[in-house]
Amino acid sequence: MENKSKEKENKGEDYVNFKRNKSLLLLIITLTVFTLLLGGCQPKGGSVGDEDTVAKVNDTPISYEEYRKNFAMIKYELEASYGDKIWSQIYQDKKTFLQVVQENLVERLIRDELLKQYVEKQSLQINQDAIDTEYQKQVERLNSQPEKKKYYEENQIDEAFIRKFFVSSAYMEEFVAHVGQSITVSDEEIEKYIAENSEKYVDYQLQVRARHILVETEEEAKDLVSRIRNGEDFATLATQYSKDTGSAVQGGDLGFFPKGIMVKEFEDMAFSLNIGEISEPVKTQFGYHIIEVLDVQDMKEEMKRDAKIDYVIDELTKEAKIERYMDKIQ
Asked: How far apart are CA 173 and CA 125, in angstroms?
């Protein structure tokens, strides 16, 4: 890797938002979400560490308390969508879903600390105003959800901890922007890295951005199709009627997704529609969907951009002293 000075561009937010949107979509559609949401890495080994430490990055400890609060936030969202029986389901490598989430959360916290250290070592500045803005929005949302707020209070997830979450995101965005503008990785190295880690990039293919409305009966779906085609606003109807509450608050918008993510009936329809076209009702195991494709994009350039970032993170990880104490979370 070679450092060079260039005018800084704001690429960090694009990368972080892409990862978040992809992860949210996978969370809604399939249990494989958490491999992506929490970093996609598997822990390497495990040893006995300090009583209140789940990992160390260059001798900087990551406390069990930080892990516990992060896990509590994840637990709330997952159980709200899937119920508490999700944790016992068998996932990859014959592990339970609980084990996979626990292990990947530790890896995400390690990555966050590693990037924080790098950004500070390079004397890069994170955007405090952006942190404050996002933090205030989150606090306002939380104050409008009394049940969730009570849960956070019971788990000692206070406003200072919530702000820390956005600080971590800011470090990631600053790191990504720095990699994009000030670090050179040859095309040959990136192509080799993609080939050697092809499983990371299966989602970077032709993608569609779609929104949908999910209802219980075909009659409801047909009525909504008629109303949309007669001029009523799709997003407004999605907010009012969709059973998919996760996307309903976004007007039904699912973001971009490739083939292989959605259930087959949904995917077949989404990839057959023209931009702006409204589908007939599509029946899946979840109910009846009305689908509209908003955009189509090729992800090759995004794949190269993100592979460069992943490559640099992997190089930093190899150089770092990382200790994992997985016994603390079992």
From this structure: 11
- Mean pLDDT score across all residues of the chain: 85
Strand 183-184 to 2-3 pairing: antiparallel
Quick one: average pLDDT of 132-152?
A: 94
Structural domains of the chain, with CATH: 2-200+301-329 (1.10.4030.10), 205-298 (3.10.50.40)
* DSSP secondary structure, 23-42, as one string: HHHHHHH-TTHHHHHTTS--
CA 330/CA 48 separation, integer angstroms = 12
Could you tell me the sign of the dihedral formed by the alpha carbons of 104, 109, 113, 119, in that order? positive
What's the average model confidence in pLDDT over 107-122?
A: 96
Q: Which residues pair with 282 in a beta bridge?
A: 289
Count of CB atoms situated within 10 Å of the CB of 60:
13
For 1, which DSSP code? -
**What burial class does residue 261 get, using C-beta atoms within 10 Å of its C-beta: 0-12 exposed, 13-18 middle, 19+ buried?**
buried
